[in-house]
Design brief:
It is built from 17 helices and seven strands. The protein is α/β, with parallel strands linked by helices and 349 residues long. Helix 13 runs antiparallel to helix 14.
Length: 349
């Protein structure tokens, strides 16, 4: 009990960038140093203009090693953003530039990820970001583009002024829409082959097997993903239960999905995403009281989760609890005005 509580508290502190050790900063440097060096190489090779203007939320090593001008989206080095309204509850990460501001400043490329503009093709997190770019609104309303940049690197980002306006700054790169199914299918298939080979080399590597199952899911191979997730979930892996829940939801089987998310939170009580998806699934099944309980639990774990707060407000409205929904609306006004506006527009208010 004590050890579990300690891990939960430590995880919550780390997620909020509180009390980070110097060693963690060094580990982070190792994840961005190669990218900064690769960007510098692209400039030397003439594929990226030396006056290309990028926007990202990592303004230390990447601009230092690349030599490129960077708009700091968190405002640590930008006075306009630094004096803007708070949009969250993360230390030094709760003020954010808007795409409109980046456009006004003449930014050429807006990194889709908080940190990375370039990704190694074997990096599993790249596939997570690509899947999100394909299936979810990035919050900007702008299309996402990708380009292979050589040496197994891929760029992923948004052009604030449009791709035609920025193309001259990236004359050596061929950007294509992340919505182009032929392009993304090829990238996912390459990833599946690479991770399948990793699984074959070491079938006992749980992490790689889980990544392979997720890749199948991202590629739309839902039955294959369920086949891979199931034994891992049966062995008590909460992340596999979570993936299985998403896969069953993709097939339209909310009851199977519900059981998987329940297993995930039972195995890992501090699993905020699983509590959130459990709440959404209860809501789809018309179980609004249970949905409110699960979403409230998710918010206790992550108070700044505006999506969970929006869903909770909607669940309260379904229950006829207008006062509860109004409370969530007021909380959203502080952390996510756009989500607050969506809730306020609900006719049940």
């Amino acid at each position: 009990g004590f050890a579990r509580a300690y891990r939960t508290l430590l995880g919550n502190m780390t997620e909020r960038y509180v009390g980070l050790r110097q060693e963690e900063h060094r580990l982070f440097l190792s994840t961005v140093l190669p990218e900064g060096q690769r960007l510098a190489q692209l400039v030397r090779d003439g594929e990226v203009s030396p006056d290309a203007y990028l926007a990202m939320s990592c303004v230390g090593a990447i601009p230092y090693y690349s030599g490129l001008r960077i708009l700091d989206r968190f405002g640590l080095t930008d006075s306009h953003v630094a004096h803007s309204q708070f949009q969250g509850w993360l230390m030094a990460h709760d003020k954010r530039a808007t795409l409109d501001y980046a456009r006004a400043q003449g930014v050429d490329l807006w990194a889709y990820d908080q940190v990375h503009t370039l990704w190694k093709e074997e990096d599993f997190t790249f596939f997570e970001r690509l899947w999100t770019a394909i299936h979810q609104d990035p919050g900007t309303g702008a299309p996402v583009y990708l380009a292979r940049t050589g040496d197994n690197w891929i760029a992923l980002g948004i052009f604030p002024e449009g791709i035609s306006e920025a193309s001259g700054k990236f004359s050596g790169l061929r950007f294509q829409s992340a919505k182009d199914e032929e392009v993304t299918r090829s990238i996912f298939e390459d990833g599946i082959k690479a991770f399948s080979a990793k699984v074959q080399r070491d079938p006992s590597d749980r992490k790689v097997r889980l990544q392979y199952a997720n890749l199948l899911f991202y590629a739309g191979r839902i039955d294959g993903a369920i086949e891979e997730f199931t034994p891992l979930a049966s062995a008590g892996d909460p992340e596999a239960c979570f993936g299985l829940g998403l896969a069953w939801a993709a097939k339209g089987d909310d009851r199977q999905s519900l059981r998987s998310f329940q297993d995930a939170v039972s195995l890992k009580p501090c699993y905020e995403q699983a509590h959130f998806q459990l709440g959404r699934t209860h809501a789809r099944l018309g179980q609004y009281r249970e949905a409110a309980e699960a979403l409230s639990h998710a918010l206790r774990l992550r108070p700044g989760d505006s999506e969970a707060r929006l869903e909770l407000g909607r669940a309260y409205l379904e229950m006829g609890n207008v006062e509860g929904a109004l409370q969530e609306y007021r909380a959203l006004e502080t952390v996510d005005p756009a989500a607050a506006a969506l809730l306020w527009q609900d006719p049940r208010f």
